[in-house]
């Protein structure tokens, strides 16, 4: 599907593909485009159809290529069931056309299209193509920031009950750690693209555009720092939970060992007095049975007190 937006008489309009003019800024949004749609774009821009199809066919890594047009493959956050992953999309700049190609609908591009339908963000068509590109990438980075904030909130909630983490909480921690791992690889690749982009002297970019892209590069570095901090927090929570579990196991084993030792003394005595001999101590005494019970109780209490004194229990 191809959707084309342009500014006509100070109104954002959806226009037909045949009405596109490369002299003014237009946004072409391609979502899972068909072969004939790709051929139309190829004919208009001379961008090879195979390059337009890259993010549709493969899970591409972020990168940048420059020839008669500028091609950027950038990765964006994507909500898949309950997990946040990252998916690639392509941005092509040809003259005054900015072309985005998506295999899965990117939330930020979906939001931008809704805003255009409501006649919002007209300034994007009144500025340069470099400014439009900067705005798109800025909003994608904002989505990363939003996702990192959600991970941080999850970690903060779990931190408040670290002594009794449920299976659900552990699964949430694992899912958050997995998300941050995806983000780490993605942000590093995106930063590489921004690093090249801020140094690029693509003819459609002016000095102000390059300054904005430089700012975007440093903001992406801050995102990467935030991701590393969050990943360290999650790892520390996992480690702390392991320490708590290990400590509980140690206390339980101490308790079991102590009970076994306390019970062992009476068991040994009853075993001895249960042997089938003619003569056994205390057998002939009137209160021998009670003396024996008392002796076992005293020994058991003595062992318990010793364990308390040495801080075993």
Question: Any idea what the shape is?
Answer: rod-shaped
Beta-strand level of the residues, as a percent range? Answer: 15-25%
Annotated CATH topology of the largest domain: Beta Polymerase, domain 2
DSSP strand tally:
7
Topology order in helix (H) and strand (E) letters:
EEEHHHEEEEHHHHHH
**Which stretches of 5+ consecutive residues score pLDDT under 50?**
none
Please give the oligomerization state of what you see.
single chain
CATH architecture call of the largest domain: 2-Layer Sandwich
Give the total of domains. 2
Quote the average pLDDT.
79
What distance lies between the first and last C-alpha atoms, to the nearest angstrom? Answer: 71 Å
Which CATH first-tier class of the largest domain would you pick? Alpha Beta
| CATH fourth-tier homologous superfamily of the largest domain | CorA soluble domain-like
Q: What share of residues is helical?
A: 55-70%
The neighbouring-strand order within the major sheet is: 2-1-3-7-6-5-4
Write down the Rg: 35 Å
> Main β-sheet: number of strands, strand sense, barrel status?
7 strands, mixed
Backbone structural class: alpha+beta
SS element count, helices: 9
